Amino acid sequence: MSESKVKRGANRQSVFFVVTGLNATATAAISIFLTLVAQAWSQPVQGSLEVRWDEGAANCGATSHEPLQVHAYDPQTFILRQNLCASFEGNFLYLLVGSDKALLIDTGAVADSTQMPLAKKVLELLPDKDNAKIPLLVVHTHGHLDHRAGDSQFSIPSVKVVPADLKAVRAFFGFAKWPDGTAQVELGDRTIDAIPTPGHHPAHLAFYDRRTGILFSGDFLMPARLTMEDSAAYHASAVRVVDFVQAHPLTHILGGHIELDTAGHAYGMGSHYHPNERRLELSKEDLLALPAALDGFNGFYARYPSFILSNPRHNLAAVAISAVALLIFIVWAARRLLRRHRRSAA
User: Fold this and answer.
1) What's the Rg (C-alpha) of the chain?
2) Rounded to two decimals, what is the model's pTM?
């Protein structure tokens, strides 16, 4: 070998060799070896989703429940679930720890730290560096109150909270042509991609973790009712995310809620009790099915094996029209009966 040169990218995703003076067999062997090494480096870190989430209770006052349930997917990835008895939303929050800082995705539905000690628990999970907790960045999948109510608990010098409105999201992540493009958050040996996914909310984001291959999808895709404010934007977001994951390894899709049981039936709105709850994670196949489901959506309600499509505005309008039609019919029927009664009396 007369000369060799090695270049490694900062994210260790690829290795490039410039080699001269080798015969074809040696070159082929090195090429195969480098391919295997690159594949090994690009494989997502495997974790565990073997956890039984607290199902809440039909009578929350009769039993005691921990406000937060914490599951370690791996030593640097934590799933936090707010108890259904504390909030029927039962939000899932995600803490991703890098070597330099950590990222918290959403702060949930409960602001009161005595009822929901979210900040206290998150800080306990953070590792120390230079005799202090590593910095924490708090972001949101979107701005609905049940995903940002806990923001007030993080008024701490080492914590930065990114507001959930579209102007703040675009400014912080640097989206020049929202909703096109992606943005990256560097945590130190861990890169998170932010993907615009409006449709449920104008500033909705999904977050992809390159380390684990997990897509944190918020309310965009989850085993629950997928409610849309803008159906065209929702469909465009589905296509955008499908295109993204086709070029990236995907292990799991973890959303903001579970609202379906194992049979695929939705729990009643506002229910604090989820017996036989479906598993949290969705698959790549569920994501790939979403654009076609949105294409064929009737605009009101449609049930699929892993999610339910719903447009609350259309449903509310339909209910209002039905109520007006029923009222008109009742008035018409009452007037007709009154005329018959007058004729009979005469």
Assistant:
1) 26
2) 0.81
CB-based contacts of 260, cutoff 8 Å, min separation 6: 223, 224, 266, 267, 277, 278, 306, 307, 308
Yes or no: say if 197 and 240 are a contact pair by the CB < 8 Å rule.
yes
pLDDT band at 300 (very low <50, low <70, confident <90, very high): confident
CA atoms within 13 A on the CB side of 281: 17
Residues 183 and 202 in one domain: yes
- For 39, which DSSP code? H
Q: Which residue has the tokens 């099915």?
A: 289
For residues 13 and 192, the model is more confident at 192
* 115 and 30 part of one domain: no
DSSP track, 243-277: HHHHTS---EEEES---BBTTSPBPPTT-SB-TTB
Burial (CB < 10 A; 0-12, 13-18, 19+), residue 42, is middle
Helix (H, G, I), strand (E, B) or coil at 317: helix
Same domain, yes or no: 116 and 213: yes
